Amino acid sequence: MMKTSEELARSIYRDIRFSIEENDRSNWAETDLDTKFRQLIQKFSRFTKLEVSYEAKGSLPSFMSRKYTFGLYRILQETLTNAKRHGDAKSVWVRLCFSAEQLQLDIWDDGIGCDHLQKGFGLKNLQNRVKELNGTCSFFTEKGKGFKTRVVIPVVQREVAHG
């Protein structure tokens, strides 16, 4: 119970700290997701020494709301943190694919994996973020074979005023 309370407190603290740092920035809707991902990966790799490979496929939407950009950024951030902290990973691969219908984000690592996944606050929080974006989230793991997260989110078109 103490461990669960500690994890919750850390998660809340991280969210509050991140929100304070990032909410003041007004460019969430102006800066595209690919750029945000590249910036996050570069910072994360530098501070943690985790090797992260990244590729984006397909055409990025011309507009993605702050809600989606921020939510996907936080999903990537949480997944990278989990790979380092819980998975003891040395390398992570990130693939962001866009189509006309959906965005798919796959993140997998070479960490320790596990046979029986128990979702802590981090994974539950990640699932809730995906749900807020009307998407689905799947986890795949096996002991000694790393961890994979797949996020699929439908593409939301910007409403155009007709008059």
Automatic annotation (TrEMBL):
Keywords: Kinase, Transferase, Two-component regulatory system. Its EC number is 2.7.13.3. InterPro entries: HATPase_C_sf, HATPase_dom, Sensor_HK_TwoCompSys. GO terms for biological process: phosphorelay signal transduction system. It catalyses: ATP + protein L-histidine = ADP + protein N-phospho-L-histidine. It holds the Pfam family HATPase_c. The keyword Nucleus does not apply. GO terms for molecular function: protein histidine kinase activity. Residues 71-155 form the Histidine kinase/HSP90-like ATPase domain. It is an enzyme of class 2 (transferase). This is histidine kinase. It comes from Shimazuella alba.
